[in-house]
Structure formats: structure tokens, C-alpha cells
Amino acid sequence: MTRTVITDTVFPPEKVIGSPRSLGGVDLVRCTLTGGSLVQYEDAEFGLSVHDLSLRDCRADGVLHGVRFSDVSVHDVASGGRITPAACVFRHVTLSGRIPRLMTLPAHHSLPPEVREAFQKGAERFYDEVDWALDITAATFSEAVLSGIPGHLVRRDPETQFLLHRDRAEAADPEGFSRGAGSHLTSARRSPYPTMVIVAPRRSRYFTSTLEDLESLRTAGIAA
User: Fold this and answer.
1) CA distances for 199 relative to 46, 50, 75, 165, 175, angstroms
2) Range of the structural domain that residue 65 is part of
3) Roughly how many angstroms between the first and final C-alpha of the chain, as a whole number?
4) Do 83 and 162 belong together in one domain?
5) Residue 174: is the preceding peptide bond cis (ω within 30°)?
6) Cα angle 125, 147, 17; round to 5
7) Same domain, 130 and 68
8) Could you give the CA distance from residue 181 to residue 200 in angstroms, rounded to a whole number?
9) Same domain, 97 and 50
10) Model confidence pLDDT, tens digit, residues 186-219
11) What is the pTM of this model?
């Protein structure tokens, strides 16, 4: 089957709203996709799907909510701000090269509590059937917060990408750690999953101090 490859194209901002929808089957190279929306706010089974997609040397940002990403690869992507996929789930998604500020979020706070809970339960069901969710082994971040993804399903570089255990964080005394390490303990305690990955972002000016904080948690047996 011939694969669609699109190069050096600037896409106008577009709103894709609602579920079910399926997008993908394309390679984007040196393209710009900014200012758009890919969202749905009611389908906790994640029928809004992006699959079989690759981005290389692209510029991308926009609003993402309630999307299922599967078989996606992203290499060297720039953004004008922070990329914040909310209530999204991931299966076989690989990030590599230079990746901008990334923060995964729960369902939007403006949604009713029962809808936010439904998205969380739907994500738990989804991840029960996933062998691995995200591969960040070869990614260099300026910032990364991956609180909404089960840590044990993240393929990572243990040198700078740490696996924290919620139960160990709950049992730890934060008084024995730096303020930064204590913040990581709080994040692990609040995780909806038993494990989470916390990254020391190589492209951040706080890389060295963050790495030291996380190494202290590894020494204490809280992180791996």
C-alpha cells in the first residue's frame, strides 16, 4: 500500500470536534500544524482516534482532549508553547529527538465530576489492554510531566527518566529530602496509577538539580 507523505506544508488552524472519528495514515515532514483543536468531551471509550501517523521536523501545537493515540511517532517537533494533551490515552507512541514542553493532564476541570471520573475509568480500562503506551527513550525534553500515564507502560532511559512508585512515596518522610524531591514525592502520591515516570529534562536549565533530586529518591529506593 502506498503511504501518503506530506512535506513542507502549512496547515490552517482547524477544529475537529466529536467522536467517533479516525485520523491518520500519513507521514508529515517539515510541516506546520498550529492553533487547531482535536477534542471530544463525552466519549470515555476514546472513539476520537489518531493512528498510524508520523511527524518529523514539524511545528505543532493546539488543543487536545479525549483523543486515543496509537502507532504514532514524533521526532524533532517544535512548539510555541506547552503541549498539554488532556484526558488522552496512548498506545505505541514514540517520542524522539527534541520535544517541547509536554504535560499530560486529566479531563478538563470544567466538566462535571461524573464525566471526569468516566474519562479516568475509561483510561484505566484502555491501559489494561496495552503492552506499552509511550517510548521516550530517545527524547530530549525542555519539560515533561507524564502524570496521567501508568509509569510501568513507559519505555524510558533510566539515566534521566525515573520510575516512581506511589506506595513507596506514600510511606516516605519528605523531611529527609530536598524541596524538589519532596515535590516529586507529592506527584507520585497523587498519581492515579501505582507508578509514574518523572523526567529530568536535558534541555532545561534545571536539569542538574532535578537529576540530583531524582537520584536521591532512587538511592532511597522510592524511584528506579
Assistant:
1) 27, 25, 18, 14, 22
2) 4-155
3) 42
4) no
5) no
6) 65
7) yes
8) 12
9) yes
10) 999 999 999 999 999 999 999 999 999 999 999 9
11) 0.94
